[in-house]
Amino acid sequence: MSQGSQASETITLTVAQAIVRYLTAQFIEIDGQKTRLCGGGFGIFGHGNVPCLGEALYDVQDILPLYRGQNEQSMGFAAAAYAKYHLRQRFMFCTASAGPGTANLLTAAALAHANRLPMLMLCGDTFLTRLPDPVLQQLEHYGNPALGLNDAFKAVSRYWDRITHPAQILQSLPAAIATMLDPADCGPAFLGLPQDVQGWTYDYPVAFFEETTHRIRRQSPDVAEVTDAAAALKGAQRPVILAGGGVQYSRAVAELTAFAEAHNIPVIESIAGRANLVATHPLNIGPVGVTGSNSANTIAEQADVILSVGCRLQDFTTGSWTAFALDAQIIGLNAARHDAGKHRSLPVVGDAKLGLKALGAAISGYTAPTAWTDSAKAERAKWDAYVADNVSTTATDGSNRPNSYAQAIGVVNALCNPRDRVVTAAGGLPAEVAANWRTLDIGTVDVEFGFSCMGYEIAGGWGARIAQSENEPDAETIVFVGDGSYLLMNSDIYSSVLTGKKLILLVLDNGGFAVINKLQNNMGQESFNNLIADCPTVPEPFNVDFAAHAASMGALVERVDNPAELGEAFERAKAANSTSVIVMNVDAYEGWTKEGHTWWEVGTPFVSNKPNVRVANAEVESARDRQRKGV
């Protein structure tokens, strides 16, 4: 067949069939190996997607496996965790029916957007013809009939489109893929699929469905920006590298490590960058910020130049912009221009791998003063000693401490294998994992704190395990979840059992939203409506039997009374072939990690009849002089 005849050849397909066919033809090259770009999807069918999209997906279920979700929001969380495991090089789609099914995806889309993770949403929409309006579950806007529920996704999508004609996907699908694979603009893509349009046909060019292999773009940094950044680094007496999650997405861990070692520069990590270096690397000074370490925060506030690599400089990393000296120079090496120039940083817009190589060449021969790096290492040694004591069940006077998150983290950390993956999100566990977890291998910690979203833990664990089982079937996915997040979203325990994707869940029950109760108390207020025992509308508080609940979904369960029993149960869970849930009560008031925190800006009342609230307001405001205000 000649090129001309091939270009003119067409095939008649429905819109839904064409979308699915296009997805099956997309591949990506990763480390020289070609693999399918879309790993499959998560779906709950309804009248808005099963007649047409469901029909199309049936024929490719061996190529694009469709995982039946229990909740659309948790499907989105699972898709985000899958993409995070694959370092944004692969994605899953989520399909939901028109109306409430699609609405349930809003929170997950926001999570993917905040974390800059690819996820494709294929969601039902109202009829384009409007002939049957108003239809079941349609939101009517009297003065704007084109406005519907799906428009809400414009705020939480990097790419948004409503397919109003079959030919439209010839442009929309490649644009959605390009967005999801772009290092700077990566995020969720949303396609609204009207129920009638899904089934309409069009003579599509056969060439549109030809196999395509994608590669993630690596943008070289501007020479002038590298020169400016190099000049600042070469003049630094107290430099530090702030390593963010973008280091891993760029697959630049080796370059980061080589750069730090060549120039003897201490490294601190953001929450998203928590596993860029193993805990025992001599230049790993620890996590920085509100959920950080004394060691990292001490050198962060003393540093005169901060090289931020792949970090979006969220407030928990910057201590609401008090973690760094007011006159410290920040260098922003980032694929996204928006992140590279924050707070008058010297921007180096480009790929982390290429940028570190360019900067390394530009500062050849420079090393940080030995005294500075040695002082950072000494701070890390002190922090390691603190963590060792913090995760211990025995106090310095020999007495037993109450059960705590830190103890559970220490037990699991000591017993897991280096490639086991840890997943947590929201509540008190992200701070406790960030501070107390000692990284055993690169890229094994998923602390979702970009959106800090309750409910991500179990669903994200399921998505991570689907991805992990593709590459590392012998490794475990370990989920730390509090009772609050468990109650919010737990149905993917059932999903993991149904699909044979084993999880190990540690359910740590502190009787409510204990970390917010702690914040409430720290702000001078009495406990109110956070712990179950402090809810005025609860006449007789009682504990949920989480073990019985998890068992009803098919999980192996154990209830333990202390960290020693937790360790024994964890060993049994590792040896098991299916999902295991271990439940342990922890103290709501004692056992929190008390060291390592920077200031964090929260809104406090400037007028109150409660003396303790006024005192807390004064304490919060007293630190504001240290806050960088955009300069």
What characteristic shape results from the CA principal axes?
globular
Enumerate how many helices there are, as a single number. Answer: 24
Strand content: 15-25%
Number of domains: 3
CATH superfamily of the largest domain: Thiamin diphosphate (ThDP)-binding fold, Pyr/PP domains
Provide the gyration radius in Å: 25 Å
- Quaternary status: single chain
What's the total count of β strands?
23
Q: Mean pLDDT score, rounded?
A: 96
Which structural class is indicated by helix and strand composition? alpha/beta
The CATH architecture of the largest domain is 3-Layer(aba) Sandwich
Poorly predicted runs are: none
First-last Cα distance: 63 Å
Main beta-sheet strand count, sense and barrel state: 6 strands, parallel
State the name of the first-level CATH class of the largest domain: Alpha Beta
The percent range for helix content is: 25-40%
Report strand order across the widest sheet.
5-4-6-7-9-8
Describe the structure.
With about 625 residues, the protein is an alpha/beta fold. The chain is globular, with a radius of gyration of 25 Å. It has 24 helices and 23 strands. It has a six-stranded parallel sheet, sandwiched between helices. A six-stranded parallel sheet has the order 14-13-12-15-16-17. β18, α17 and β19 (about 445-450) form a beta-alpha-beta unit. The protein folds into three domains: about 10-215, 3-Layer(aba) Sandwich (Rossmann fold), CATH 3.40.50; about 225-385, 3-Layer(aba) Sandwich (Rossmann fold); about 395-585, Rossmann fold (3-Layer(aba) Sandwich), CATH 3.40.50. The protein is about 35% helix and about 20% strand.
